[in-house]
Recover the amino acids of this structure.
């Protein structure tokens, strides 16, 4: 009897490890404390261990989601949740005119969030995303390397990278692809950035910290790439659907008893 | 007498038809505006570029008309949001339960020392200046951005402290996730900068009785004339 119970437990434990420790397509990110590239008064933030999708969500994956969840299809989506550009690459509700392996773009924050929730995941936070994004192929924090910054900035200058397919850029230190070089990505708390143009007047604190002077005030000029990302996040609204803005999902690490 | 009535009816019918015709024409007219709003709300009837900033004019998005199959509210209505909120009295509600009133909403947190007392004052000021007719049909709502600290009990205490524990005042809190989503709908940004401190946008939003956003006042201590005008208009349109 005892052995039987033991076996059952063993089987459950094994499956739990397979099922939860590293779901397919996700990689483990070991958390740590770091100073974001461009943070409010450069405070240290803490990122806990978490899982992140190795690739951005593709057109094909998003289509599968749309088929199962018709209320997010182009014709059915509530205007509250997406602007008129939503799924512009779709010729009808379930047909898109793009490469199936290209990142899904023209997706609003609400739709991206719903997609992740359907997979039992969530969108990564800005702190998590930036933490993974500061790695290059060999180091977890490559921000001091001139080559790292140079690559990102030259990508920002390259048009139409959203047409490329996922997984063509070298994987980074964590085993994550396409953090840079393909599309910009939604974050769960994208609306925690207070550096929109309006913030000069409508934010109660540090109103002088942002806008023009902020780039100059950032700790070093190489922070410019990150500053652009934060500024972009601060300037968009959750229902915006943008050509070069995609997303990937993240997940908390489940502790196995 | 009968003829007179008939004539009146016909006349009314004719006038209303004409009115409807006009609005439809207006709705259908394609207008273009500068994406930067250099000239305020000025629109053009042709494509082209803005005379001030030279940017291409963009088409003005027509108002949403598609009705929700389950109710009478439109695509842009916040009554579509399924989240459950708890009031200062511990009652669970959905936003659609507030249907029928004009809603004036602001996001705050009760432990805030800097901006929120001023936002509360702004809200009070707006309420005082509404017409008597409007006051009856308006709900003034505070939504907490700090649901962890702002329990219903805490909201109740805050309401009492500010003499706002009665109509038209209402205090709401929900989960962190629902709060983030609602802020996204209102285009309100906020960030926790320490366990007791948040940085946040100061935006007062006005929703009509169908739950559609009609106006946003941005900033602290700004002139509320426009906000009040929009609230009164929203009430008249009911």
């Amino acid at each position: 009897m005892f052995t039987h119970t033991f076996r059952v437990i063993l089987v459950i434990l094994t499956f739990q490890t397979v099922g939860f420790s590293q779901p397919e397509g996700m990689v483990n990110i070991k958390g740590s404390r770091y100073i974001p590239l461009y943070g409010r008064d450069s405070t240290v933030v803490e990122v806990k261990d978490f899982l992140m999708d190795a690739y951005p969500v593709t057109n094909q994956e998003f289509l599968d989601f749309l088929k199962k969840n018709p209320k997010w299809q182009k014709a059915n989506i509530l205007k509250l949740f997406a602007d008129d550009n939503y799924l512009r690459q779709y010729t009808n509700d379930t047909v898109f005119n793009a490469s199936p392996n290209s990142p899904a773009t023209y997706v609003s924050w609400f739709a991206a969030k719903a997609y992740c929730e359907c997979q039992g995941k969530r969108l990564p936070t800005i702190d998590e995303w930036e933490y993974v994004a500061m790695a290059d192929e060999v180091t977890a924090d490559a921000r001091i390397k001139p080559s790292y910054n140079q690559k990102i900035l030259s990508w920002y200058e390259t048009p139409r990278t959203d047409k490329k397919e996922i997984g063509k850029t070298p994987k980074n230190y964590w085993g994550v692809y396409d953090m840079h070089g393909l599309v910009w990505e939604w974050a769960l708390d994208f609306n925690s950035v207070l550096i929109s143009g309006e913030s000069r007047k409508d934010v109660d604190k540090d109103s002088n910290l942002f806008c023009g002077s902020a780039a100059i005030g950032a700790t070093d000029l190489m922070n410019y790439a990150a500053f652009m990302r934060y500024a972009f996040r601060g300037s968009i609204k959750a229902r915006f659907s943008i050509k070069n803005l995609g997303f990937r999902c993240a997940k908390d690490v489940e502790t196995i008893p | 007498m009968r003829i007179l009535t008939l004539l009146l009816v016909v006349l009314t019918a004719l006038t209303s038809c004409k009115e409807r015709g006009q609005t439809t024409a207006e709705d259908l007219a394609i207008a273009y505006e500068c994406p930067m709003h250099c000239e305020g709300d000025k629109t053009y009837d042709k494509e082209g570029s803005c005379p001030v900033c030279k940017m291409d004019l963009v088409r003005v998005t027509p108002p949403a008309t598609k009705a929700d199959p389950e109710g009478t509210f439109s695509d842009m209505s916040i009554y579509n949001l399924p989240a459950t909120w708890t009031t200062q009295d511990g009652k669970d509600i959905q936003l659609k339960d507030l249907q029928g009133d004009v809603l004036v909403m602001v996001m705050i947190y009760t432990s805030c020392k800097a901006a929120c007392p001023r936002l509360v004052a702004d809200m009070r000021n707006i309420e005082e200046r509404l017409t008597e007719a409007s006051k009856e049909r308006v709900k003034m709502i505070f939504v907490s951005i700090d649901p962890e600290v702002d329990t219903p009990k805490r909201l109740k205490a805050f309401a009492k402290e500010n003499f706002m524990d009665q109509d038209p005042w209402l205090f709401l809190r929900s989960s962190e996730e629902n709060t983030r989503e609602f802020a996204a709908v209102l285009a309100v940004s906020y960030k926790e900068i320490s366990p007791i401190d948040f940085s946040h946008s100061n935006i007062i939003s006005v929703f009509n009785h169908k739950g559609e956003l009609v106006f946003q006042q941005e900033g602290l201590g700004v002139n509320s004339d426009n906000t009040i005008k929009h609230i009164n208009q929203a009430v008249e349109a009911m």
